Amino acid sequence: MRPQLPLTALALTTSAAAACDRATLQAATAALIKSQTAGKTDALPLSPNITYLENDTPTPLSKSILTTPLPIDLSRSLHDTTACATFTEIIAASAPHPYVLMTRMLLSPSGTSITAIENVVADAGDWLFNAQGSLTNSKKETWDVIAEGKRDKREVIKAAGDAYLDSWADGKVKVPYGGTCARLEGGSYTTNCKMPEFPKEFKDAGG
After folding, report:
1. pTM (2 decimals)?
2. What structural domains does the chain harbor?
3. Which residues contact 152 (CB under 8 A, 6 or more apart)?
4. Distance CA 117, CA 4 (A)
5. I want to staple 135 with a disulfide (CB 3.0 to 4.6 A). Which of 93, 94, 160, 202 is the partner?
6. Which residues fall in a coiled-coil region (predicted)?
7. What DSSP state is assigned to residue 121?
8. Do 162 and 9 touch, CB atoms closer than 8 A?
9. Which of 103, 100, 165 is nearest to 128 (CA)?
10. CA 137, CA 178: separation in Å to the nearest integer?
């Protein structure tokens, strides 16, 4: 069973030259929502040489979740103008077959086309999956823009994300968890943010 992986930090890992403005990236994520709702990729400005991964597996777009029309109950996007990348959370809890999607897109340096899409697709049978719980708890979160003077530097955010993901393979990696830390895992919140080394067994997961 697949865990729902936190891809937010992954939007910071690309070294593409800064050339994308926020409006261009917002248009790309709007096109993603439109496409996923319709189950058609026509609205996406796809590169002819696009690469697509679904749950880390190369998949033809014609067989991807993008061809499944979904009623989207909640979506949120992050837009990384430095890396020409986006991250979108999509929750389709009211669908006959509920899904929770975490979608990362990379755009060309000019921002005119999408060169790569990486999708984590979670549904029934996946570890702790609960789309309605994800929807209820996600609605409680605030994703407001942080005032510029209160933002951490990009390098600080990237280092924290890298440490968190690296700790999954090496439990000795120190992660800068906050004094209070909450993790939304499969629809439930847990205050135990420390992840075990994979594939070690989870203890008190989601509790």
Report:
1. 0.84
2. 8-127 (3.10.450.50)
3. none
4. 17
5. 93
6. none
7. E
8. yes
9. 100
10. 20
